[in-house]
């Protein structure tokens, strides 16, 4: 088997684990938002497969049906969207993610930017009103006298009030009024796959055991997010002069910063994406720390609610430099030691 063939084979095994771990998240989305959540995922996967074929034709190469990275890209991207988004938006976002984020840079693991983040950011900038407004969970179960077509919500999601997520409450200086267990399980209005933190963390355990995700990058990312949220909380009733009497309130802010938005989801499904993750252990730690800082800056000063994807693209632009800089430094040290030795 050629080097490229081994790379595809190993990548497919990794991608199968990621696909398997999106299944519990989609089941939670189905529980909270109904069959439409699964249909959106299916549309995303079909779009990704068709785009792969189209890209193969454009590049004049044979289509490899075993290469399944685009399926992962689509599944992750759709989970970051509300259950009410139009199918056309999903098609456009996945098309951009695969065609621009992945294929334009050479295909599997040759891209400098996380393709799912590329697709989401394009959708967020183009259709913010549809991407950042969410239905209440379990609403589909409460509707009475539904026809079969209405139950499936094949084409529309009518009669549903859409609200902003808890991150906007934090941005406005308040604390969301969400019970801790609802926060863990995802029983609040938000992106259909990002809210069920307990399920996502369970998936992380499996991926860690299988050695599919890095520990260093997510650890640095989460540590910086917690530190900034604790020292500089967005809650308007906390001031520097009130420390340490307000420790409990600061921890409450940290809880909501971690469990609302894309922090936990990104640390499991996006940060350790093999095509954009640095290879050196120290590089991975620096990558995670910088990503945590950029994420909080986007949250504090950015325009959009889910700033994590924008932060990922920003840090992806310099992540390759970390490996080169550390490798160069190691080579210089080795050369100096060789010169100094008799």
Write a concise keyword list for the protein shown above:
342 residues; mainly alpha; two-stranded antiparallel sheet; 2 strands; globular
Oligomer: single chain
* Largest sheet, spatial ordering of strands: 1-2
Look at the structure and give the mean pLDDT.
85
- Based on CA atoms alone, the radius of gyration comes out at 21 Å
Structural class assignment: mainly alpha
Spell out the helices and strands N to C. HHHHHHEHHEHHHHHHHH
- List how many beta strands DSSP finds: 2
Into which percentage range does the β-strand content fall?
under 5%
How many angstroms separate the termini?
Answer: 44 Å
Give the overall form.
globular
Helicity, as a percent range = 55-70%
User: Strand count, sense and closure of the main sheet?
Assistant: 2 strands, antiparallel
């Amino acid at each position: 088997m050629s080097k490229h063939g081994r790379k595809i084979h190993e990548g497919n095994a990794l991608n199968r684990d990621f696909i398997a771990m999106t299944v519990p998240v989609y089941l939670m989305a189905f529980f909270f938002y109904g069959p439409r959540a699964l249909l959106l995922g299916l549309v995303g996967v079909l779009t990704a497969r068709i785009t792969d074929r189209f890209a193969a034709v454009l590049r004049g190469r044979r289509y490899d049906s075993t290469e399944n990275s685009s399926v992962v890209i689509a599944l992750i991207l759709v989970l970051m969207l509300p259950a009410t988004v139009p199918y056309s938006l999903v098609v456009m976002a996945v098309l951009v993610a695969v065609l621009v984020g992945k294929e334009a840079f050479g295909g599997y693991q040759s891209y400098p930017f996380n393709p799912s983040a590329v697709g989401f950011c394009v959708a967020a900038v183009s259709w913010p009103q549809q991407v950042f407004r969410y239905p209440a969970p379990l609403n589909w179960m409460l509707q009475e006298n539904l026809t079969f077509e209405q139950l499936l919500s094949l084409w529309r999601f009518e009669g549903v009030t859409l609200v902003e997520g808890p991150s906007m409450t934090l941005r406005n200086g308040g604390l969301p009024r969400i019970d801790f267990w609802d926060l863990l399980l995802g029983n609040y209005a938000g992106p259909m796959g990002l809210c069920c933190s307990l399920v996502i963390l369970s998936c992380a355990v499996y991926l860690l055991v299988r050695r599919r995700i890095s520990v260093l990058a997510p650890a640095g990312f989460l540590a910086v997010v917690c530190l900034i949220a604790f020292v500089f909380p967005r809650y308007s009733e906390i001031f520097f002069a009130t420390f340490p009497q307000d420790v409990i309130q600061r921890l409450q802010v940290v809880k909501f910063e971690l469990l609302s938005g894309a922090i936990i989801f990104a640390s499991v499904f996006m940060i350790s994406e093999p095509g954009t993750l640095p290879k050196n252990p120290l590089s991975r730690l620096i990558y995670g720390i910088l990503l945590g800082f950029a994420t909080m800056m986007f949250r504090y000063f950015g325009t959009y609610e889910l700033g994590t994807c924008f932060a990922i693209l920003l840090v992806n632009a310099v992540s390759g430099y970390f490996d080169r800089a550390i490798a160069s430094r190691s080579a210089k040290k080795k050369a100096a030691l060789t010169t100094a030795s008799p």
